[in-house]
Amino acid sequence: MAKKTFTFILHDDTVNTKGFRMLTSGADLSVFENNPVMLLNHDDWDLPIGRWENIRVEGTRILADAVFDEDDERAAAVMGKVERGFLKAASIGAWPGKSSDDPSLMLPGQTFPTMITWK
């Protein structure tokens, strides 16, 4: 049986819900690419619900294909939400690196510095 994959935009350069933004050009994806686990709600103290494949940067966006662990009941339930259109977004967890208060990097609605490097 072929595995089901679902493409998500994990990150872009826009202002996030916390009021800051992270430049895609400053992302170090090496740690993520070495262990691309999919966590539910960034819950890193619980088991993953799947993995990310085909991680890629397209312009100012980071995309990846979600592969759910269909043998895991909770993961299968989340996959069902995706299939039925109830869950349409995902986000990448990140550790901040360097930030900048440079006004040229600020966007409308941004209330905190811009992360210019992050993992």
Short précis:
The protein is α+β, with helices and mostly antiparallel strands. It has helices at residues 30-34, 73-83, and strands at 6-11, 21-22, 37-38, 50-58, 61-68, 99-100, 114-115.
Describe this entry's structure for a reader.
This protein has 119 residues and is of the alpha+beta class. It has one domain. It has 2 helices and 7 strands. It has helices at residues 30-34, 73-83; strands spanning 6-11, 21-22, 37-38, 50-58, 61-68, 99-100, 114-115. The strands form 2 sheets. It has a 4-stranded antiparallel beta sheet with strand order 1-5-4-3. It has a 3-stranded mixed beta sheet with strand order 2-7-6, with no helix packed on it. The mean pLDDT is 96.
Architecture blueprint of SSEs:
Blueprint: E1 6-11, E2 21-22, H1 30-34, E3 37-38, E4 50-58, E5 61-68, H2 73-83, E6 99-100, E7 114-115
Parallel strand pairs: 2-7
Antiparallel strand pairs: 1-5, 3-4, 4-5, 6-7
Strand % is 25-35%
Largest sheet: 4 strands, antiparallel
Give the % helix: 10-25%
* Sheet with the most strands: spatial strand order: 1-5-4-3
Query: What sequence of helices (H) and strands (E) makes up the elements?
Result: EEHEEEHEE
Q: Termini, distance in Å?
A: 35 Å
Please tally the helical runs, counting DSSP H or I stretches of 4 or more residues: 2
Which parts are unreliable, with pLDDT below 50 for 5 consecutive residues or more?
A: none
List the domain count as a whole number.
1
The chain-level mean pLDDT equals: 96
Based on CA atoms alone, the radius of gyration comes out at: 15 Å
Would you tell me the structural class of the helices and strands? alpha+beta
Total number of beta strands: 7
What would you call the shape? elongated
